[in-house]
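[job 0412] stage=complex_fold ligand=NAI status=START
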Amino acid sequence: MTASLAPAPLALSMGEPGGVGPEIARAAWRVLRDEGPVFFLTADPALFAAGDIAQIENPGDVAATFASALPVMALNSKVAAKPGDASPENAPAVIESIERAVALSLSGEASGVVTNPIQKSSLMAAGFKFPGHTEFLADLTAAAPMPAGRTRGPVMMLAGPQLKTVPVTIHQSVVSAANFLTAELIEKAAHVTAEALHHDFGIEKPRLAVSGLNPHAGEGGALGKEDDAIIAPAVEALKAAGIDARGPLPADTMFHAEARETYDAALCMLHDQALIPAKTLAFHEAVNVTLGLPIVRTSPDHGTALDIAGKGKARADSLIAAIRLAAAMVERRTASRAR
Ligand SMILES: NC(=O)C1=CN([C@@H]2O[C@H](COP(=O)(O)OP(=O)(O)OC[C@H]3O[C@@H](n4cnc5c(N)ncnc54)[C@H](O)[C@@H]3O)[C@@H](O)[C@H]2O)C=CC1
Ligand SMILES: NCC(=O)COP(=O)(O)O
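[job 0412] stage=complex_fold status=DONE, emitting structure tokens
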């Protein structure tokens, strides 16, 4: 086996055990076992047939086992999983899995975190107070220093081969998102995005396209005031700070092929403005990346897919893309620290 040059293996969290996470983790391992990137799963080993996995005690054991079996680090919490069911009873294990992967990444024993999808409704029913990984990971890593010159987020990016999008507001209702939007929020998301495009994606001078909030970017105030009152001043402030930003642009016309040629990432005001084009263009290739964390974190763009869990239909492509992107980001960060 030719192992990845990553300094340590990546830690994959288990995700919702009744969803497609366990089967796509195994499928990803089958594809990557010979060439890497090398990774291990933090999960209840009972989710897998004994012969399919190798239980490991610590990430240092991964290199020796990766070619022959999917390495699994056992959780303290047990799961009782049925494919297609997301039970709140499994929440302690789902949360422990994420916490373990993050702790190992913060300590340097893992090089980064790749999360499998969680069933947010199920976790929240069990009392989990975060609307998604993005916010939870920001909380778990809040005390760790950021890499030099990087602004703390968190900021969500959907990164596909033809399009990168960033929702400035994430897991909130459309009504609350519109009220939550400020020039400061947009500017911060833009700074985090521009830094990540430069340092993690190797784009020398990133170009940002900033969407409007309202139809036709407000049509000069006739269809809403936020575009002129909040977004336009934010774009001006970004330009003054030396960031190549344009907008507010009407969101309905900024994603066609010619438009996409003019920017490196689209900053969108609402979750669906960003995720609909990203998933429509590349559902099986796009990766969800959390920017502005002290650690590397990626994830497949899709959710738990309870409707197909356990049926052998789930594709592992997006998870594989997430693992590869995480390894590439780790490599860039390691190289830049060495310079
Ligand atoms: N990073 C995360 O933890 C994410 C979690 N979710 C959560 O997942 C749950 C379900 O969300 P949905 O909106 O139903 O989206 P979903 O992505 O789970 O499913 C949407 C459709 O895509 C299909 N699909 C999804 N992944 C697939 C794969 N790997 N291969 C083939 N087909 C696939 C499903 O079968 C379904 O028809 C929700 O609780 C949501 O919050 C959603 C997105 C990301
Ligand atoms: N729609 C994207 C999504 O829900 C993923 O969120 P997160 O769990 O990565 O914060």
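The chain has a mean pLDDT of 96.
[job 0412] exit 0
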